[in-house]
Amino acid sequence: MTIKPLIILPDPLLRQVSKPVEQVDSEIARLADDMLETMYDAPGIGLAAIQIGVPRRMLVIDVSKEDEGKKPLVFINPEIIASSDERSVYEEGCLSIPDYYAEVERPATVTVNFVDREGKEQTIEADGLLATCLQHEIDHLNGVLFIDHISRLKREMVIKKFTKAARSRTA
């Protein structure tokens, strides 16, 4: 397993729509392991493949508490097929937008179809933190960031801050 470098805002790759995974094979399994290793190292609770520069529709999540032990989930070609009218608000952050957090309102529950790391089709109904995390990471696969769900003024301030920081790193 290898810890991969994270893609950070304002990298345009984060706005790219990811392509479906054609086949679950050893390369995809290795990618899942690398993504989990990178996510745990960051540390985070979710990571989309695009965040490590791989534009494939794949994400990993682990919302288990530290005292429960690790319970990693791998989602390949995930698709939200249903969401509740009921809403919930969570303070979200993102490994690609380090040290910035904002409250985001999303559907409280979602139903997601996906392929697991063994190549089997699955459906999961999620609520709470898992539902929020799934929506956040699936957004990444569609080139959407959590800051797209906050006010335009706040979003522009965040983008400006990260653009300035990126310029100073390359100067």
UniProtKB/TrEMBL annotation:
Its EC number is 3.5.1.88. PANTHER family: PEPTIDE DEFORMYLASE (PTHR10458). Removes the formyl group from the N-terminal Met of newly synthesized proteins. Requires at least a dipeptide for an efficient rate of reaction. N-terminal L-methionine is a prerequisite for activity but the enzyme has broad specificity at other positions. It comes from the Bacteria. Signal peptide: none annotated. GO terms for molecular function: peptide deformylase activity. Fe cation binds at C94, H136, H140. The active site is at E137. It comes from Pseudorhizobium tarimense. It catalyses: N-terminal N-formyl-L-methionyl-[peptide] + H2O = N-terminal L-methionyl-[peptide] + formate. This is Peptide deformylase. InterPro entries: Peptide_deformylase (IPR023635), Peptide_deformylase_sf (IPR036821). Binds 1 Fe(2+) ion.
